[in-house]
Amino acid sequence: MLNRLIATIILAMLLASPVAAKKYKPINEIPGQVPETDEEKGIWQVGLAHQEKVRGTDELVNNAALEEYLEGIVNRLLGDMKEQIGVEADVLVFKEPTVNAWVYPNGTVGIQTGMLAAMENEAQLASILGHEVSHFLNRHAFIQIKSKQKQSVIGKGLGVLATAAVAAKTGTVNTGLLNSGQVWTELVTSGYSRKLETAADKQGLELVIAAGYPADQAIPAFETMRMDEDDEINVAKMWSSHPDIDARKKNLAKQIKRSKAPASDQGMDKTSYLKAVRLAVLSNSQLLVQAHQYEDAIASLSDFTSTLNQDAEAEFLLGEVYRKQTPQGNFETRIGAYQKSVTIKPELAEPYRELGMAYRQQGKREEAAQAYRRYLELKPDAPDAPIMQWYLDNLATAEPATGN
Question: What single DSSP character describes residue 101?
Answer without folding.
Answer: E
